[in-house]
Amino acid sequence: MVLKIRLARFGKRNAPFYNIVVAHARTARNGKPLEVLGTYDPIPKPPPSGEGKAIKDIKLDTSRAKYWLGVGAQPSEPAWRLLSMVSCE
After folding, report:
1. Predicted confidence (pLDDT) per residue in 60-81, tens digit
2. 1 Cβ partners below 8 Å, 6+ apart?
3. Residue among 7, 23, 19 at smallest CA distance from 80
4. Of 20, 29, 50, 65, which is least packed with CB atoms within 10 Å of its CB?
5. Which residues pair with 58 in a beta bridge?
6. How far is CA 7 from the centre of its chain?
7. Pairing of β 35-45 and β 74-75
């Protein structure tokens, strides 16, 4: 069975929040995943110091992501961009 690393959407309308998950390719977007690798909050938050650019929050278990990539899980396009941002290629 083909495995995908993809984003599962949560949150309210106009306030999305995503879990980065590993799931079978044929399951629904918000169906039960095999494993949750991390979270992604696309709404920019102000930096803690109050100066500079707003930041988007990405939390990811890189060791588990590398494991799933090693056993053949295929990341979706948005998930691939997030994995490359945290250098988990």
Report:
1. 999 999 999 999 999 999 999 9
2. 24, 25, 26
3. 7
4. 50
5. 40
6. 5
7. unpaired
pLDDT in tens, 20-66: 999 999 988 888 899 999 999 999 888 877 777 888 889 999 999 99
> Do the strands 3-12 and 15-24 form a parallel or antiparallel pair, or are they unpaired?
antiparallel
Provide the whole-model pTM. Answer: 0.85
How many angstroms separate the CA atoms of 71 and 54, rounded? 35
Residue with tokens 């959407």: 9
What distance lies between CA 34 and its chain's CA centroid? 14
The SS3 assignment for 75 reads strand
Helices assigned H by DSSP within the chain: 62-70, 77-85
Rounded CA separation 75/84 (Å): 11
Strands (E), 25-54: 35-45
Tokens linked to 45: 């938050």
